[in-house]
Specification:
With 461 residues, the protein is an alpha+beta fold. It has 13 helices and 19 strands.
Length: 461
């Protein structure tokens, strides 16, 4: 699954090593490991450590915390794709009596169910899961903090419910289902619910002294679907490639694209930070680049998975400290270094295999009122509508097979584009969700809503 590190230029490799070296030194991390993925394969691995003569490699396990949630979300989407459930189903339909019944599966995935961020005390990350043997122990007597569906509020108990949902349908433990349906098919043989040697030890670093304190390792029990997993940079590199390209044995590329789509209304601070949550994945907009992935932390460990789909570059960063380097920034920088130093080589342009004259008749310049648009047919069989001014509403459209097209993004997502023809078969105009697009601005004789003044265009005088 890996390719020689020489596939990256020497200058790029040194820049990557420098970035993680600065992160480990300034963040005072006992160790930090990283990997970069390009074109679906790991092409670089780096490590920095405080132990002389020892450097953790891509086979050493670290705890990955909330990156576990992405794995749990994959299991839930598998159930949806099989027709076992609908994301709009209330959790009560499948797990009655939880006390969170009005929340839907989609809201749990997107952290918009209004549930508390944490389980009732004591703090679940540093105490045994045996203290919370039932879902009621995880949710508490008052599980809600906000109205259902009104706002994004990160919730670890919400993913406990999703793990229980998986167990309910599969009749097996979340851990066994994950291993059978995701880890084994993807070849993630160094990802597990419990540490397996070689693995890093988790440490707390004193805030005012260069001193260490070992952190306890707890089995999270019911909370496992929210943060239990251990993994390696090699395994997470493979997982990153899967999250982009899909694998029909596990989850299709279309369902993964749905997972990468924002699903939660961000708060004002999140909007300012360019952050949103999808279905088990985070999305960030930084320096003109869209990054998807997830962060993770548990006492003694930090983790980050960052992917730029447009650049076809991903980064994995793991450290064994409770607090220290900001791994989301490190991951974003590793992606940026590769994307800027060695930009993606685009696929060769290729023409359409076949051209339908009735479709070709639609391309070119159109006007909605006085706003100019260009409709273009692309080699992937889609139609693209873009404003000629460079700013304004734009969308791609997929053909429906009956002469109509459905919008895929933006304002026109889900809206119907319908060519309207004259009695002689020629195209009169385009109807897009009741908007009339004509070949000329307010074209005379076209069915423009409100009509067109018969005196036509004129000057001021």
């Amino acid at each position: 699954m890996t390719t020689p590190q020489e596939e990256l230029l020497p200058g790029t490799r040194r820049a990557l090593l420098h970035r993680i070296a600065v992160a480990q030194a300034e963040g005072r991390a006992p160790s930090l490991v990283a990997a970069v993925v390009r074109d679906g394969r790991a092409v670089w691995h780096g490590a920095r450590t405080s132990v002389d003569g020892h450097g953790p490699d891509g086979n050493v396990q670290y705890r990955i915390g909330s990156i576990t949630k992405t794995f749990t979300a994959v299991l839930v989407l598998r159930l949806r794709d099989e027709g076992a459930l609908d994301l709009g189903d209330p959790i009560e339909k499948h797990l009655p009596g939880t006390g969170a019944g009005e929340a839907t599966i989609a809201q749990l995935l997107a952290h918009t169910a209004g549930l508390a961020a944490e389980s009732p005390e004591p703090w679940w990350e540093r105490t045994p899961g045996s203290l919370r043997p039932e879902l009621a122990d995880v949710l508490g007597e008052q599980p809600f903090r906000h109205p259902v569906g009104r706002r994004f509020h990160y919730s670890n108990p919400g993913y406990t419910l999703l793990g229980a949902l998986v167990e309910q349908f599969r009749g097996a433990s979340w851990e066994d289902v994950l291993r059978r349906e995701v880890l084994e098919p993807l070849g993630l043989d160094r990802t597990s619910a419990r540490p397996r040697a070689p693995h890093a030890g988790g440490w707390a670093v004193h805030p005012w002294a260069d001193a260490l304190l070992p952190e306890p390792v707890q089995d999270l029990g019911r909370m496992a679907p929210a943060g239990q997993l251990w993994s390696t940079t090699t395994d997470l590199a493979r997982f990153a490639a899967f999250l982009v390209k899909g694998d029909d044995r596990v989850l299709s590329a279309a369902s993964l694209a749905e997972m990468r789509t924002p699903a939660a209304p961000p708060g004002a601070a999140d909007v300012a930070a360019g952050y949103a949550y999808c279905l088990g994945l985070e999305i960030r907009h930084q320096e003109g680049r869209t990054l998807i992935g997830h962060t993770g932390s548990l006492p003694g460990f930090l983790a980050n998975l960052t992917i730029s789909v447009a650049d076809d570059v991903a980064a994995v960063v793991l450290a064994n400290c409770t607090s220290g380097p900001l791994l989301s920034a490190v991951g974003a920088d590793l992606v940026r270094i590769v994307a800027e130093a060695e930009p993606r080589i685009p696929e060769p342009w290729r023409p359409l295999r076949e051209v339908d004259p009735s479709v070709l008749e639609l391309v070119g310049q159109w006007y909605w009122g006085t706003s100019g648009f260009g409709l273009r047919l692309t080699a992937d069989g889609l139609a693209s509508l873009e404003p000629l001014s460079g700013t304004g509403r734009r969308s791609r459209f997929r053909p429906n097979g009956d002469g109509t097209w459905t919008g895929l993004e933006g304002y026109y997502a889900g809206e119907l584009l319908r060519p309207v023809r004259r009695p002689d078969g020629s195209v009169s105009h385009l109807d897009l969700g009741s908007f009339v697009f004509t070949r000329q601005p307010y074209e005379e004789g076209a069915p423009v809503p409100g009509g067109v003044d018969p005196e036509g265009w004129r000057g001021i005088g």
